[in-house]
Design a protein that fits this description.
Elements lengths: L8 E4 L11 E7 L14 E14 L2 E11 L3 E4 L19
Antiparallel strand pairs: 1-2, 1-5, 2-3, 3-4
Length: 97
């Protein structure tokens, strides 16, 4: 099961580097790189772009970049409500004169 799809805005809810948690990203598409990113077997890896640099662990160093791979299981999409919200009672607007 995937949570995100290309074009979504999403929030990082889990990360190997905890400083990335809470970052808002734009999901671009499937990641096609060969990076050895930690993810559960069968997890979809997305290419995502953030407005601020995120920290990535590479074999010999940490790097900071705005664009990179993120497992779907570490993201939650930010979407509007799929249905209109029902209003139970009318709201009276009172204007002062």
């Amino acid at each position: 099961m995937t949570y995100c799809k290309p074009g979504d805005l999403a929030i990082v809810v889990e990360a190997y580097n905890p400083c990335n948690i809470g970052t808002i990203v734009h999901v671009i598409g499937l990641y096609s790189g060969k990076s050895g990113i930690c993810a559960p077997e069968g997890d979809v890896i997305w290419l995502a772009q953030a407005s601020q640099p995120m920290t990535y662990a590479e074999p010999s160093k940490l790097t900071r970049r705005r664009r990179g791979p993120i497992p779907d299981s570490q993201l939650r999409p930010i979407r509007g409500q799929s249905q209109a919200v029902a209003v139970k009672e009318p709201i009276d607007l009172v204007t002062s004169e």
